[in-house]
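#onboarding

Welcome to the new folks! Below is a worked example of what a typical request in this channel looks like: someone posts a single protein sequence, and someone else replies with the predicted structure as tokens. Don't worry about understanding the tokens yet, we'll cover that in week two.

Example request:
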Amino acid sequence: MTIEEAAKKWNVTAKTVRSYIAKGYIVNLEVDRNEYVLPDIPKPNTKVKPKKERKIDEAILKTLDKCMYISYLILHISQEHFAERLKALERSGCIFKRDENCDDYSTSLNFILNAEKAEKQYHLHFNLGPTISLVSL
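Example response:
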């Protein structure tokens, strides 16, 4: 999608989309004849900057609950640290992979929230509720 299409989809200005691009928040970005082609992804959740592991985990879980995406660049942490947090959430059962064959731990795009498990473990309330979380693996 174009910058203008992304701005409309995400309900932000084109300038904001360009800012996301400049900051590296958009994954799988392509350039076609001097124009950016953005992948059809959810709006990046840029309102969080946690430092402690529990807060990072909560930011990831809340982002998945909002059907948005987040990456290590948005959180201002290393890619290794972000992957470590995703794997820990996966091991705990709070999230699971959409595609078991995909080993991409650089963003939250390949993960689905298990709201029921995450609510119990993190004492958070999620908007999607247990209907989304009861997906059989």
